[in-house]
UniProtKB/TrEMBL annotation:
Organism: Silurus meridionalis
Matches recorded under SUPFAM superfamilies: Thiamin diphosphate-binding fold (THDP-binding) (SSF52518)
GO molecular function, one term: pyruvate dehydrogenase (acetyl-transferring) activity
PANTHER family linked to this entry: PYRUVATE DEHYDROGENASE E1 COMPONENT SUBUNIT ALPHA, PYRUVATE DEHYDROGENASE E1 COMPONENT, ALPHA SUBUNIT BACTERIAL AND ORGANELLAR
Pfam family name, one: E1_dh
Single Gene Ontology BP annotation: pyruvate decarboxylation to acetyl-CoA
Coiled coil ranges: none
Name assigned to this protein: Dehydrogenase E1 component domain-containing protein
Residue ranges constituting the Dehydrogenase E1 component domain according to the UniProt record: 7-61
InterPro entries named in the record: DH_E1, PDH_E1_Alpha_Subunit, THDP-binding
Source domain of life: Eukaryota
Cofactor requirements of the protein: thiamine diphosphate
Amino acid sequence: MCRCFVAYVVGRRGGIAKGKGGSMHMYAKNFYGGNGIVGAQVPLGAGVALACKYQGKNELCEIDVEVRKEIEDAAQFATTDPEPPLDELCHHIFSNNPPIEIVT
């Protein structure tokens, strides 16, 4: 399985996407490696872990400790720091989307 993922990331035909794709979209049966939506890995991972629990499967569900700490810090900041308001963070002008004024 590991060779398929390495081949995939470097764009080889032996990879899981036959030479097409990118590392943000890495997926194979029973492996949810990434997602094209920035930040979507956390809820996706939580859903996979919850599904394993409900199905009674003893499967490995893991999140990097560094990422976990960043998530906790971001949630803590968003819920306790009065400035900037959470609404401002959600509509921040620096994003991969056009500014909110353009699309509304």
